[in-house]
Specification:
By secondary structure, the protein is an alpha/beta fold. It has two domains: 175 residues, Rossmann fold (3-Layer(aba) Sandwich), CATH 3.40.50; 71 residues, no CATH class. Helices cover 42% and strands 26% of the residues. The chain is built from eight helices and nine strands. A six-stranded mixed sheet has the order 5-6-7-3-8-9, sandwiched between helices. The chain has a three-stranded antiparallel sheet with strand order 2-1-4. The structure holds adenosine-5'-triphosphate and magnesium ion.
């Protein structure tokens, strides 16, 4: 049996950028609507094996979040093939999918069911989730009365408690205050340390990546530039950043003179 849990085969994702809402509307009925194409992910192939911990590096717009979204099924590839084996828990859009009229506790059941769990399984995890979210009396209030930080805490608590086989984290997420952030990092560390859990981490912080991941991939303009051990990947990424920086400076120099 193969141990591959995530596989991309020649995956490309293009977004259509319409010149106006009118053109976007027209595209529903006609192929003549005019738009530009943005290639967010360009003919990407890679495999991740069970138990690997992988950091994904790249500048803003390199395609990192698009890759994660295609793994979780929020976005679809334009062409190519994606295989994912295992229960995916993504710390991306933590507050998406809550029913605002339900209480926090009811939403735990609601989301648990979305993950394919039975009510008994959810009941077992409920105390842990309630404790981690640390919302006191608000856990029995409708989610519409929560602040955005409180919603994110509940989302995080649920998504890390459902015993993920594949954990996906986009660092761009800013969860709660610094005390809660610390608690989140500790929890992620604990999950990543569990046997057979596969971890995919998008981050701009090479230090944090190094503490969590053994492998590093570097993306640029939708393409995979480098894929190796975390140390080599960080070296490579930092070098490309420095090169870009010096090119920019040189470019500027001409106009400044
Ligand atoms: N819904 C969308 N419609 C149009 N273009 C999009 C959409 N989502 C992403 N893009 C474009 O695709 C490219 C890749 O975006 P993506 O969000 O994957 O980058 P990223 O590597 O996660 O960047 P960051 O570090 O800023 O989070 C960018 O040029 C972005 O503008
Ligand atoms: Mg992103």
């Amino acid at each position: 049996m193969s141990n591959t849990v995530i596989e991309f085969k020649n995956v490309t994702k293009t977004y259509k950028l319409f010149k106006s809402d009118r053109q976007r509307f027209k595209s529903i009925f006609s192929k003549k609507a005019s738009y530009k194409k943005k290639v967010a992910v360009n003919n990407l192939s890679f495999k991740i094996e069970k138990g690997e911990s992988v950091a994904l590096f790249g500048k803003n717009g390199a395609g990192k979040s698009t890759i994660l979204k295609m793994i979780t099924g929020v976005a679809y590839p334009t062409s190519g093939e994606i295989t994912v084996n295992g229960r995916v828990s993504a710390l991306l859009e933590l507050t998406a999918g809550f029913d605002p009229e339900f209480t926090g506790r009811e939403n735990i059941y609601f989301r648990g069911q979305l993950f394919g769990m039975s009510n008994d399984e959810i009941r077992e995890l409920e105390p842990e989730i309630v404790d981690f979210a640390d919302l006191n009396d608000y856990i029995d209030q409708p989610v519409r009365t929560y602040s955005s930080g409180m919603k994110a805490r509940l989302g995080f608590a649920i998504n890390v408690s459902i015993k993920p086989e594949i954990l996906i984290v986009d660092e761009a997420l800013s969860v709660g205050d610094s005390e809660f952030k610390k608690k989140c990092l500790e929890k992620i560390n604990q999950i990543v340390g569990e046997k057979d859990v596969t971890f995919l981490f998008v981050t701009h912080s090479t230090g944090v990546a190094k503490s969590f991941c053994k492998r590093g991939m570097v993306m640029r303009q939708g393409k995979l530039l480098f894929d190796s051990s975390i140390d080599e990947a960080i070296d490579f990424y930092q070098k490309t950043l420095e090169e870009d920086e010096s090119k920019k400076k040189k470019g500027k120099g001409i106009f400044e003179q």
